[in-house]
Amino acid sequence: MLGRLPCDRRIERRANRIGRRIRLRDDLTTSPRTPDQPAQPRVGPRDLASVIRTSSRAEAHQRGSKKMSHTPLPSIPDDLRLSARLDRLPLTRNHVMWLIVLGIAMLIEVFDNTVFAYVAPSIRANWGMSIAEVGLITSAVFVGMLIGALVGGNLSDRFGRRPVLIWGSVFYSLMSLVCAFAPNFEVLAVGRVLTGVGVQAATGVLLVYAGEMFPRFARGRSLAVVTFLGFVGAPVTSLAALAIAPTGVEAWRIVFGIGAAGLVIAIVAALWLPESVRWLLINGKNSEAERVVVGLERSAARSGKPLGPLEADVPAPPRGSLRDLLRPDILKRLIVTSVAFFLYIYCNYGFISWVPTILVDQGAAQADALRFATVLSFSTVAGPLLMFFVADKIERKTTMLLASLLGAGSLVVFAFASDPTTSLVAGFGAQLGFSVMGVVLYTYVPEVFPTNVRGAGFGVVSGFARIAGIIAGVSVAAIYTGFGYQILYSVLAIGLLAAGIVAGVFGPKTTNRSLEAISDASVLGEVSTERTPNVRVR
Questions:
Q1: Whether the predicted pLDDT of 400 surpasses 80
Q2: Which is the most buried residue in 20, 242, 243, 510, by most CB within 10 A?
Q3: At what angle do helices 454-483 and 328-352 cross, to 10 degrees?
Q4: Contact call for residues 399 and 436 (beta carbons, < 8 A)
Q5: DSSP letter at 197?
Q6: What's the rounded mean pLDDT across residues 1-27?
Q7: DSSP letters of 431-447?
Q8: Are residues 453 and 485 in the same domain?
Q9: Which domain holds residue 402?
């Protein structure tokens, strides 16, 4: 029978003897330091002592043995080491700069995406469009977004996140100018389709990029900041329409022209944004990834902020293909996120895109309808602001369930409200629920896919969701015309609640987990047969 384990002091003495003979591997040391940064400690006797404790009790008790057995230190691949170094960083000036660039980029994209909802009453008055034609134009942008989601995701996995973000911004900006100068309904419809292609390609890659480049302890808050700045685009669009549209019968063209500001952000992104470290690693560009990480570490050193422990959870997967999305573990995530995102997009745009048009159709003045929509649009800013404080404290799928309850309940109240004050409060609550759920979904969906298919995975999910936008543009008009707004908003409430239940019950957990750990099948409760042990260097 085995005796008791040796005391800690005896283990540490034995570790000291082993430490004199073992040269520790470079990939278990901390990152290269700057001249003004003190050297980081290597793994010492206490770390070796922890290795000795993992040996069997029998081996630890063999005092007469000439050679002591010990568990070898695991080797950490470069890609895993660099990902771990990226995740342990504090937020640096570089991160803040990226947040600003990405946030403004998303603001312009949201502006271009939502602009038609706010200028539709003006265009109807100018061109005499029917409700059905408004629905067709609304659907047109989602046709383009479907294409942009699928094409943009695949291109970003093949050529990189950065070039797709830059050229997608250039493309949708030029298409906004096409819409601004559209001479008729047909050209405007084509322009909105092509705008949707660029907007969704850029937005999808932007969110993937942000999820990959920020440390895991702040990933949720960072995405909340990006979406906060992005969702400012809704009130900006509404205010622009409110200020410009009434000034002339064709003043709506100026509002479309503002969307060409994406050309400026494309230039800034080309100058300031590096390629995603995780994309570089997947594609064998380790030296480029090393340069980006070293630059961030030097920035952290200059700020005096300490680095966290180096933790490696699972190995980075090899370069993937669309077939990898059909693997059972990934397919489950694909289905869950696709259904939740589909229902969210249908209900969100079914509500937001139609509020001004329905109000005018119900007898409200165009200016009053735009003011009402402007007040509601500010709740889209409140959502990401709220999530900044709770994004990394509450599990994401739980947050989505709670947001769907808030939004669905508010939609029902909005549908049957009998006075303007109740309508305004309920509408604000509904849009707040949509906003919170949108922030979490845009953070959550890229997280659940491995790096090698993250762009394609998000593209497929987002593309499938854009089909909901296409359907919403036509079906919302049909439901409203045939059954009235009360039935319409009740249907949207049911759909939003269903989205929250699907994500909250069947989705994987992701909060405060590294992207590599989330990619592991065990996150879904499945058994992983090739899980690399967690390695920590303090």
A1: yes
A2: 510
A3: 40
A4: yes
A5: H
A6: 46
A7: HHHHHHHHHHHHHHHHH
A8: yes
A9: 83-524
